[in-house]
Amino acid sequence: MVVLNNPLGMGEFEPHLDTITRINAGILERRVTSAMQAWRQRALTGGLPQKDAEGNDIDWASVFEPAPGALWDIPAGIELWESDATDIRPLLEGVKDDLRELSEMSATPFPALLPGSQNQSATGSAAMKEALILKARDRLDVVDTGLSAIISKALRIEGFETEETISLSWEPPDHVSLSEKYDAAVKAKGAGESWKSIARNILGYSPEQIEQDALDLADEQLMSFVDNANARV
Predict the structure, then answer these.
(1) Both ends of the chain: CA-CA distance in Å?
(2) pTM score
(3) Domain of life, per the record (predicted)?
């Protein structure tokens, strides 16, 4: 069995459970508050009689029972009061603040937690991106060791002879455009770096792609040689 140990021996979410719980509680409070506002508190002022003309107790709660389409006949001199709606915007802002804190603590881009919040400063966005890339690289180091061991064990079970260690190739977590890659490749070539090293370390080619590229280049050179020979004839 191969154990993949996450940093601190905890899941990605576990260090932030307090913040996540606070966010969930804020969302629950907002939803409950919004739902309860459908039944606002009402009151009648002016002094309603407690007994009818025959001396029987009057159940005003049943007389003024709220219901869709209900029509109340309020005695003269009686005023109806209804509580105001609660402003839930502070609750919304509180959840956003908690999400922002979770974003910073977990190195997660804020727009990923709250879509529509792209109005972040360029400096803040760059800092958050850098933190996410560093986190991804750290997790790749953790996964690489365990996954190499898993693949090695799986190959041995299938009867294949393997080396003690297996090297895995990962796509870099930071996005680099093709123009930036080829610009770096030209500079590396000028510095004397080999093509295979450039293809592997800068362009991100897999071993299979490097091998296929060598075959394609050989084919092109052969075709060029044949064309030149035919031209001389």
Answers:
(1) 67
(2) 0.56
(3) Bacteria
